[in-house]
Design goal:
By secondary structure, the chain is an all-alpha fold. Strands 1-2 form a two-stranded antiparallel ribbon. α1 crosses α11, α2 crosses α3 and α9 crosses α11.
Length: 281
């Protein structure tokens, strides 16, 4: 297929280099990197991954990690619950699969914290399985190739995307193909300003040069002091990371450290956030 050949040729000349894209990559590295890459920039993951692997060189070491150790090692990555889900996944792999990460999508999905995307990504990138991997970049690129999209935010349904993907994914180059599509979406077929004049697929793309700019409506987040509540959650975790291991801090002192004050209203709000963090582990 011309589309497949053209994109793979472009990728060979323009591929981005990352630690999780090396030849014969360890499935353990793929498991960690795919978890880290959820809502975190690739550049930050590329910098943090080697440090994380130095602390947890094997899945057995990761499986034994405490909550506190995981959260300290996850510093700067955001969305701390991912760290605990990753550790729980490692424990399940050690206990149920003898420390061997499954290559089967259904077996992967039975692991705690592993959803449809992550299971497909591990099967594809760790074992080169011919499975459909749909992330935001892939959805955008496929949608624009399938039919002329009205605006930069329009995408096809997953059913349509999967049907298209099953036609274009090369049989023995699934990992390479998906990396290529992701790179194209990240660098050329971007969300807001696609560079159609630099795209290797522009002559094959019905959406090339015709997309109208549009912006997605942002969901309203819970706020406190004009900042999203998730930011404050992160600050609390950061403050707790700074507490010397073996030491404790009172809730009042923690509140003052994070907010700079401790009024009755602030105390009530702060207690509710601590409760939600505790429920998240």
């Amino acid at each position: 297929m011309k589309l497949t050949q053209t994109l793979l040729k472009w990728y060979k000349e323009n591929a981005r280099g990352f630690p999780w894209r090396i030849a014969d990559v360890d499935p353990y590295v793929v498991l960690i990197s795919e978890t880290m890459l959820q809502q975190t920039q690739t550049s930050r993951v590329a910098a943090r991954l080697p440090l994380f692997l130095k602390t947890f060189p094997t899945i057995n070491e990761l499986a034994k990690a405490s909550n506190g150790t995981m959260l300290r090692q996850w510093q700067g990555m955001g969305y701390n619950s991912r760290a605990l889900r990753l550790r729980d996944t490692a424990r399940a792999i050690v206990e149920q699969h003898g420390g061997i990460i499954p290559s089967d999508v259904e077996a992967l999905q039975r692991l705690p914290g592993v959803g449809s995307y992550t299971s497909a990504a591990i099967a594809c990138f760790a074992y080169n399985k011919r499975v459909v991997v749909l992330d935001v970049n892939v959805r955008r690129v496929y949608s624009r190739l399938i039919s002329r999209q009205p605006t930069t935010i329009d995408v096809e349904s997953d059913a349509v995307l999967v049907a298209f993907a099953e036609q274009v994914i090369p049989a023995r180059k699934s990992a390479q193909w998906h990396h290529a599509v992701m790179d194209l979406g990240a660098t050329i077929c971007t969300a807001r300003a696609p560079k159609c004049d630099a795209c290797p697929l522009s002559t094959l793309c019905p959406s090339a040069f015709v997309l109208k700019p549009a912006n997605k409506k942002k969901l309203q987040e819970p706020m406190f002091r004009d900042q999203p509540q998730r930011i404050w959650r992160g600050r609390i975790v950061e403050a707790l990371r700074d507490v010397e291991q073996g030491k404790t801090i009172t809730i009042t002192a923690l509140c003052k450290k994070v907010l700079g004050s401790h009024t009755a209203d602030e105390s009530a709000w702060f207690d509710s956030i601590l409760t939600s963090l505790a429920k998240s582990g």
